[in-house]
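HOLO CASE FILE
Compound: magnesium ion
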Amino acid sequence: MATTSSGAAQKKSSRSSLPKSIASQNAGQPNLEELLAHAPAAIAVLSGPELRCSYVNDMAVRVTGRLSADQLLGKTFREGIPEFEGTGVYEIVEEVARSLRPFVGREYKVPLLQFETGTLTDRYFDFVCQPMLDENGGLQGIFIHAVDLTDRVLIRRALEATQEHLRLAHEAAQVGTWEWDGAANTRVLSPELHEMFGTDPKASDREIEETWASRLHPADKADVFAAMSGASRSGSLEVEYRYQHPLRGERFFYTKGRVVDGGTRLMGVVLDVTDQKNASKLAAEQRERFEFATGAGDIGYWFCDLPFDKLIWDERVKEHFWLAPDADVDIELFYRCIHPDDREMTKRAIEESIANHTNYDVEYRTISLEGKQKWIRATGRTAYDESGRPIRFDGVTQEVTALKQTREALIRSEKLALVGRLATSISHEINNPLEAVINLLYLINQNSTDEMVRAFSESAQQELARVSHIVTHTLRFNRQPHGAEREKLSNLLDSSAAIYTPRMKSLGVEIVRDYGDSQPVLCFGSEIRQVFANLIGNSFDALKPGGRLMLKTRDQANPRTGEPGVLVSIADSGSGMNEETKKRLFEPFFTTKGEKGTGLGLWVSREILRKHRAVLRVRSRQTAGKSGTAFSIWLPMGTPASEGK
Ligand code: ADP
Ligand code: MG
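Model generated. Tokens follow.
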């Protein structure tokens, strides 16, 4: 089609005539008309007073979208190309004709009707409107030379649009690009990168570099510079760093680049990964917290696919099972690590939980290769698929050894409290008939002349005195006295020692008294007497014939707080205690006396003294010739703690 129409145009244009001025200028030269016809520009000549088109070349016909030169020849501009109305083209031509001065247009946009398709399309031209003058300087015509730029403009526009899109994309994705010549130390930053760095694109290379370097996080500087200096050697660069942006605060940048065309020039991108970093930092923090929480709670996690083909345990579960962190676990190993006595129970619990859709919650012992044990509590539950088939069995383990011990200790102390209450009620029941029997024996002793009866009743009295002592001083420790009173400790000490007078005589033991307390102390007298009786009783148990018991009291302030009080010491030259005994003497039921001891005396005494805010100290040694034990008790003058009531 195009060839046909251009062929037609060529034929017709050759029939049109050029003004004489042009034709004459080129007389004798190669045919000018031929040249113009093939020129790569649109050429037209307007001549005569009405400026009618007297010549168009082939290109002019084509770019104006006409089908043949006839559509233009002999017509004024307005008639030939009516679609130029409103574009200012007619006015330009009129102005050239009036002023006789040429006009040059650049990338001039005009609509042109494409006759072939019937569409109106925009085209762009660079053009020259040149007046042609006759010998007298009058206007002979106008020479129009126009270069069609449409394709070029459109391509450029498209390119610009693409670049703009890219820029927008970079901006949105916070991506910047850079070029860096390591050898020349020059760099080019994309506008987006200047944005990201908060640097001034107009600043000098050096200023930019200095600004950038000064905003690098100090801890990341070394890494960044190492990556840069390594880049020229390795040909690539990849580094992540923190950057203090003047407006946006701290940002995380990831940059990656590589050498282009084998030289010293590197090209690369910078990504702002702050959001990702913050997200992963948050995740890491949460994980850390989670691990801290589970670590503090000593909780391990386990996951099993059902049926038990795969067991996934974290390090803590493995620790609970005495296994190394990298140990492979299967169901056999699981059962093997559990105490033989607990295996059956555990197996049953798992099966029941899976079958009945109930929570799994058991306590079992795990055993090490050396036979060490841990108490573990395992809890878990089963996950089922839509059809109700069990697919997963997951849960946690927790070491409960310490908890178990505490629980046992609690049970023991509960037992003790029970014993205490029992003892109190028994002693109460025994005491009254006991006193009656002692009185009766006294009467028998007094009223009998039979030596044998007197001797028997005497020893019966002595034995009963022992019973009475146990009942009143050991078993009755739970009795609560009614109120605290002021008591002189030396008096209490004497009355406590008095019970032992018969024993002292039969044993051949000397009691040395050294009383220096002047003030009575506010206390529960019967309880303090019980303490003294317990200590003196222990001394007698430890003493041998010829031994000594020293009872001493002094007014003395608490050496730490300065609080006034009285110091009592009960010291014996008895057997003394070995290390093991010294460590355990206050434990309830600890005794070295076999059937004869209760192991409660010191334990009860310490409780009573604690109630009185007293300070109790023990020194004891078994050195031959210098063996003995000394208990010292400091009691404050003031009110005993109210819990004593
Ligand atoms: P018990 O007297 O019934 O054995 P205690 O609680 O009174 O129970 O004393 C616990 C243990 O402390 C005694 O069995 C004894 O081994 C030791 N002990 C206490 N006081 C003395 C002491 N003065 N000399 C040697 N050992 C003592
Ligand atoms: Mg005792």
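CASE NOTES: The first strand starts at residue 42 and ends at 47. The mean pLDDT is 84.
CLOSED: yes
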